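Reading is simple: each integer encodes one residue's backbone shape. The lines below illustrate:
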Amino acid sequence: MGVSECDNVLMLLALSLEMTKQQRNVVTPLVMEGFRDLCLEAGTTVNGGQTVLNPWLIVGGVASYVAKDSDFIEPTGAQLGDVLVLTKPLGTQPAVNAHQWLHTGGFDRIAQDLTPEDAIKAYKMAMHSMSRLNRTAARLMHKYNAHGSTDVTGFGILGHAKNLAEAQLADVDFEIDTLPCFPKMVEVNSKFNFKLTEGFSAETSGGLLIAIPQDQAEGFCTEIEAIDGVPAWIIGRVVDGTKTARLTEDCKVMEVVTPEVRSSRYAPMVMFGLLSLRGPVKFPSR
């Protein structure tokens, strides 16, 4: 981890057979533009790829970089006394689903816990988070002497923490005492159990979970917020153990308010890419 440069990207795009031709003609250019814009933000370009037809829309890519040993921080060096820093909030899965239910039904099951405005606000925060690169965090890992990290994606915060703990050279455990979440997502989780408060809710384009010396963590969090405009949080610590991870008994959920989706080309990419297109869709005029 800690690699912040990229030499080349191949784009993998599946066009949805469930869309009409008109929908594909609108959505596909937006997805491609958004993908390209984020590659440019990452300092790289798209130089090929593959396009196929599929029942649902998929976009992804393969990034490659020839790295020196000094560019890469092995994920195995967490030390007793380190703290755990998380660089993006949790709750993208319930946020996207709650917004989708506004269009496809199901919102009535959570209507007592949050308003449509709450759902839209959380969705926009999640969109901003998912379209934000982890590049700054990767660079700052070197400056603040990080000892290892993992991304937080499909296995959830605790799932990835367990995987990272198992890879450590030292006999240590990871204890997580705080879960920074988008507002109202715990209420959504209480009705549709995404396992958010258990640490296993899948994240899309999540942040980094970093083991970092305690005396370096505050500087890391201060600088990433100054550069990216979004805070990072100290959510746990590295303790003596047997290479596993857990939530503490008094683990608390902390609602965090972060910036909403940026007004740029890749905002519609993310919104169209994650919005269910089974129902009626209104498209912008071209």
User: Anything to note?
Assistant: Residues 264-286 have pLDDT under 50 and may be disordered.
